[in-house]
Design goal:
With 1020 residues, this protein is of the alpha/beta class. 55% of the residues lie in helices and 6% in strands.
Length: 1020
């Protein structure tokens, strides 16, 4: 659709750009003077010609009447409008609000000969009644209003298929819900939702219920009526995790919508930073954000077989099964549910997310069965005969479960044997003990009432995990035998009419839902699970789908996870057909490299690989080749380690090592020993880590594998440094560095240099640490020049440089800092910066790069250094006087890069960083990080206690928000700051114990003991 935009130009340039952006986001064609180009006709003729060729006319008017051609009495702007009106084009006009500030140079004035203000006033008065849609203020405001009006116009014309990004206040339903006919009742629940939206201060509302209770239907119906509730709202964003579990895609779409189309999430380096960006947008405006099917991103359901899973899940004592599989999703939930945001978040889920436990900003409504009167009304709307009492009795037998009642009505109505009479409903025991069997009984009734051919078809359709277009169903089930090679499928070969009739009948019965918006069919998860269980020939059915997906050509260039979906579907059906070896080959040849190196989609890699373990991860993958078994064990362990689950990685790597040892594969055994040692180090198993590394070194010497031996020395040096065996650690690191030097392994020399910096920091030698860290950065740069950049090396080096700078200032103070600052003439801004400004720059670089690749194992440590940095800034007066001296790239707006900051905000930021670091460390069970963070928190509370005693205004040293963890009870409650310090110091000591001396984190352990002694002295 061509949309002509008319206005004066110089005063409305930014507004015209906003209009163009709105039109482009709706995937329509903008027409305006900007793109006329060189034309033989005069401007007036060119403009009127463009109006003739346009389908819609948009007028934007401010305080200028516009150019009047010689010989005319009306401006070109007015003539464009009159021409569109004469042609009968749809017209949408917008006037600037009288309250909107406007530059005087863009306000026309009357003269003796010309009266533009009079003409403009007359023109606007003439169009006001019939054509002016609304008044606008800013360009963004105009963008939203044009978008809303044009979206409605497109809908009315049936042209909505290619809308890309509706803009607020137009609701954006990224995924639609195929609401079935005769939705009834839920009046109480809808009123409760309206009360929450209008009057409740709590930011999040969770609709929790078992499958089939109608969570999504209720949320959908209520969301459609949200604008009729007279509640001020900026927009509605609906996302279904049933349809799409890719959280990166969610962030992309949500940021584009919440920003009014002004922000491109692809320009933000990582999902973690996108979460912050989206949270900031949602804090500023009152949106309603709906996350449907949230259980699909919780650990219990975040798996390839989620579509077949019922309500029974494998619970655990830690409630990990209710935790978000992607930590960024959990962070997003807490950002919105913790308060301080105007946006409301509605979640539908079978399970209550663990991340929302104990948050005051969450309202929970467990959804139960329908109201009995509503159930009676529903059956009557469905055309089922029966008295109020008969229908209520039948519904009560099934707990008024909505999906059950819909299936009952569909079977009674469609099967001629039952005469649409409620008295033919199957009987069911009313005992509470049989409650869970009621749904099963109804599914049996609905399924068994189908003709045999349709039963088989429905079960075969249930083998698909996702919605299907009718054309796909037709090609697979009625396309003739030739399209499937030697595989035969009955009963609809070459008989599309019967297939279409069967699909229609299944839909009428409520068993197979059609989504008109996407023109696809799908099964409710509860129905899918039952029908799939009833499928007798699962391998054969999946084999048929394999043939279909093998014909789909993958994209030449895979850029997103969506591009890989057809291949993943092929993998899924290959696994389900029992062809595990073929599936493993497919994963290794077409999936693994893209997920691991290109997309960094480690969670998806976990879901895919787990399918090769049908007997559970405690057993071997169901593969014939032992070497492939070992390989997939290693890949799954690696993925777990990369998403911050080292404890799940360790047993997998140990089994990998057993297989390699039995096979006599010493090289891969040595590599596996090193991998498991790294995983064990993270969770504090220092003794086992050291033993495995020493054995790796022995094996490598035996097989003369000097490179892998050097890696063994490198990692052993790190373990020994944590143990406080600094002399031996130095020998191991020196040996590794020398061996790498002989092999010209520059990248590995960068790693060793970073470990040398770590050792120096643990020894308290910040200047030596800084020198080694800078050397690590130099090696990383050399490797990037001569081979290819290794992002982990840059992250590690930047982290160590920032850490060393903070440690140096902490120990000697900013004015005694050992690195001289250069003069203004010969130094870069970074070199002229103060030590703490330099530290901020390097830590910000490390964190940005870390989050860009999802390097979870270092993120907590970087955040801890930010916490230390803020604490030093809050307590180092010398540096605070320098903070306004220079602003660094990447540090704008921070406490260091901007104006002087008060002490209290710096202390609050310090605490916030530490808490975020602790959250990651505890979720990932990074024991050494936990010890470090708890020690820091003990120091933080001691600093707070000291300054409360010294300042006249104690409140300036208190955090502005209450603390959430059990260890961080807010000051002013039952515990004092000193008591808080004691709790953290005791926890640090326990975490640093690891396997007990000498296999403990010595520096952290001794620091905790020292803190406890200091606390005892203070409290005596």
């Amino acid at each position: 659709m061509k949309i002509f935009v008319s206005s004066t130009y110089v005063d409305l340039i930014e507004y015209r750009r906003a209009a163009e952006r709105a039109i482009n986001l709706l995937d329509q064609q903008f027409k305006g003077m900007e793109y006329f180009g060189a034309r033989p006709e005069e401007p007036k003729a060119a403009c009127l010609k463009e109006v003739e060729q346009a389908d819609v006319f948009v007028g934007i008017y401010a305080h200028r009447y516009g150019f009047v051609p010689d010989g005319d009495t009306a401006s070109i702007t007015e003539q464009e409008f009159e021409h569109a009106k004469k042609l009968g084009r749809p017209i949408f006009c917008y006037r600037v609000s009288p309250k909107q500030p406007w530059l005087l140079e863009f306000v026309e004035k009357d003269t003796d000969k010309h009266k533009p203000t009079e003409k403009l006033a007359a023109f606007l008065k003439r169009i006001e009644k019939d054509f002016v849609r609304s008044k606008f203020t800013t360009p963004d405001d105009l963008l939203a209003k044009i978008s809303a009006d044009l979206s409605r116009h497109l809908v009315e014309r049936g042209r909505v298929a290619r809308i890309t990004h509706p803009l607020p206040p137009v609701p954006y339903f990224v995924h639609t819900y195929p609401l079935q006919a005769h939705f009834t009742g839920r009046v109480i629940e809808r009123a409760e939702l309206a009360d929450w939206m209008g009057r409740d201060a709590r930011a999040a509302f969770v609709l929790e219920a078992i499958g089939g209770m109608g969570k999504t239907a209720l949320a959908w119906v209520w969301t459609q009526e949200i604008f009729s509730l007279n509640i001020p709202i900026a927009g509605v964003f609906w996302w279904s995790f049933y349809a799409e579990r890719d959280f990166s895609r969610f962030l992309d779409k949500a940021i584009a919508y919440a920003s009014g189309g002004t922000m491109d999430a692809q320009q933000i380096s990582s999902d973690r930073d996108r979460v912050d960006a989206l949270a900031n947008l949602l804090r500023q405006s009152r949106f309603l954000s709906v996350l449907d099917g949230f259980e699909r991103v919780l650990r219990a359901y975040a798996r390839m077989d989620a579509a077949y899973r019922g309500d029974a899940v494998d619970a655990d004592a830690r409630n990990d099964y209710r935790a978000c599989a992607d930590p960024n999703i959990g962070i997003f939930l807490r950002c919105l549910a913790s308060g301080g945001t105007l946006t409301k978040l509605l979640i539908t889920s079978r399970l209550f997310p663990r991340e929302l436990d104990d948050l005051a900003g969450v309202r929970l409504m467990p959804l139960t069965g329908m109201n009995p009167d509503d159930a009676v009304e529903f059956f009557h709307k469905q055309g089922i005969n029966g008295t109020h009492t008969e229908i209520e009795t039948a519904g009560a037998a099934y707990g008024f479960h909505p999906l059950t009642l819909r299936l009952l009505a569909g079977a009674l109505k469609q099967d001629p044997r039952y005469h649409a009479d409620i008295r033919n409903a199957p009987s069911v025991e009313m005992r509470e003990a049989d409650r869970d069997k009621r749904m099963q009984r109804m599914l049996e009734f609905a399924y068994d009432s189908l003709p045999p051919q349709e039963r088989k078809l429905l079960s075969q359709l249930s083998a698909f995990r996702s919605p299907m277009k009718y054309e796909t169903i037709r090609d697979i089930f009625a396309g003739g035998r030739g399209s499937r090679g030697a595989i035969e499928l009955r009963p609809y070969d070459d008989n599309e009419d019967e297939l279409a009739h069967a699909i229609s009948n299944l839909s009428e019965r409520g068993l197979y839902m059609r989504d008109a918006a996407t023109d696809t069919f799908d099964l409710h998860p509860v129905i899918r699970r039952y029908c799939y269980d009833m499928l007798a020939d699962k391998p054969q059915t999946h084999a048929i789908f394999i043939v279909y997906f093998q014909k789909i050509e993958p994209p030449q260039k895979i850029q997103t996870l969506a591009d890989l979906q057809p291949t993943i579907e092929l993998y899924h059906h290959t696994v389900r057909a029992g062809r595990y070896d073929e599936a493993a080959q497919l994963f290794n040849s077409r999936i693994w490299r893209t997920l691991y190196y290109q997309l960094g989609a480690y969670q998806t890699q976990i879901e895919i690989l787990r399918a090769l373990f049908p007997d559970g991860e405690d057993n071997l993958p169901r593969l014939k080749d032992v070497s492939i078994q070992a390989k997939e064990l290693a890949e799954l362990a690696s993925a777990y380690s990369l998403v911050g689950q080292p404890r799940r990685a360790v047993p997998l790597t140990l089994r990998h090592n057993d297989l390699r040892e039995k096979a006599g594969d010493k090289k891969n055994l040595a590599i596996g020993l090193g991998n498991v040692a790294i995983q064990q180090l993270g969770i504090g198993e220092l003794k086992a880590a050291e033993q495995n590394l020493r054995r790796r070194i022995e094996i490598c010497r035996e097989i003369k594998d000097e490179f892998n031996e050097a890696i063994g020395h490198q990692e052993l040096g790190r373990v020994l440094a944590y143990r406080g065996e600094f002399a031996e650690a130095e020998r191991e690191l020196d040996a590794a560095f020398e061996m790498f030097g002989k092999q010209n392994a520059v990248q590995s020399q960068s790693v060793v240099s970073a470990y040398r910096a770590l050792r120096a920091l643990l020894m308290g030698n910040a200047s030596a640490a800084l020198a080694s860290a800078r050397k690590a950065r130099e090696f990383a740069e050399e490797d990037a020049r001569t081979d290819a950049p290794t992002e982990r090396d840059f992250i590690r080096a930047e982290w160590m440089i920032g850490t060393a700078l903070v440690a140096e200032v902490s120990s000697v103070g900013a004015k005694h800092f050992s690195t001289p600052l250069r003069s203004a003439q010969d130094a870069s801004p970074l070199q002229r910066a103060s030590p703490l400004q330099q530290a901020e720059h390097h830590l910000a670089e490390a964190l940005s790069r870390d989050r860009a690749i999802g390097m979870v194992d270092i993120e907590a440590a970087i955040l801890l250094e930010f916490a230390k940095l803020r604490l030093v800034q809050g307590t180092t007066a010398d540096d605070r006087r320098q903070t306004a001296a220079v602003t660094l790239s990447g540090v704008e707006g921070s406490a260091v890069g901007g104006q002087q900051s008060a002490v209290a905000p710096l202390m609050q930021e310090s605490l916030t960083f530490a808490r975020e670091a602790l959250e990651i460390a505890e979720r990932c069970e990074y024991r050494l990080d936990q010890a470090e963070i708890h020690n820091f928190l003990a120091e933080w509370w001691m600093t707070t206690a000291d300054n409360r005693r010294q300042t006249a205004d104690p409140s300036t040293w208190l955090p502005s928000t209450p603390l959430r963890s059990a260890q961080d009870v807010a000051v002013g409650g039952q515990s004092s700051a000193v008591a808080q310090a004691r709790e953290h110091a005791e926890r640090a000591k326990e975490r640093a114990w690891c396997d007990g001396p000498p296999y403990h984190y010595k520096v952290a352990y001794e620091r905790a003991e020292s803190l406890l002694k200091e606390i005892d002295r203070v409290t005596r």
